[in-house]
């Protein structure tokens, strides 16, 4: 069982003795593992949720955050390697979706098993060119204005200048991770990819979610919810219900495969 004093990458972990699938969750830029703290209660007992806390965030506030994706991916892979001895899925929101995607590709290169599902949320497909101005280099007032446009800053944070001054460097580091990213074509993943998005999210317009289809030879599906870039908060009940449904289907499929395999082995005895 993970312990945050042993593995600081895993926070708010709630063990489930009946679980047979692990879900690793990656937050958006500036986000903390805490945003996933109640997901375990909303998902089936067969799903164990592993909220990922990146350096510099949440309970790891004093650590230096990553500013580039490749070393971050390698560090995450090393941190969760002991937990990949069971089937697992990856979920990421916004910059977290990019982390989850590149983590899946990195693990494949290391001859580790692919996830049984990759869930990407509020993020354009990685092969699409990003023509936006680099947010991580904007002056504070312009960066805050852009975040307000995305409805990404709670009002209580805006009203606390000291908190904003502490948070903005962490946010800039996360934005740099995504904005300095260079997509390198590889063979598509074989696991299913499910893309989630908010109907009013300006960051995923012009088919940005749909083109995740190119990144898998497996099944692809897209689900939209009422809300903006942060629909996973505003549409939380409906979103988690859909996520639970997909994961439950995966568990049932795997159980049927085991049952069929056992039946074939038993029949071979006669």
UniProtKB/TrEMBL annotation:
Pfam families: Thioesterase. One of its GO terms (biological process) is lipid biosynthetic process. Keywords: Hydrolase. Signal peptide: none annotated. Residues 22-243 form the Thioesterase domain. Transmembrane segments: none annotated. The keyword DNA repair does not apply. InterPro entries: AB_hydrolase_fold, TEII, Thioesterase. It is an enzyme of class 3 (hydrolase). Its EC number is 3.1.2.-. GO terms for molecular function: hydrolase activity. The keyword Hydrolase applies. Belongs to the thioesterase family. This is Gramicidin S biosynthesis protein GrsT. It comes from Hyella patelloides LEGE 07179.
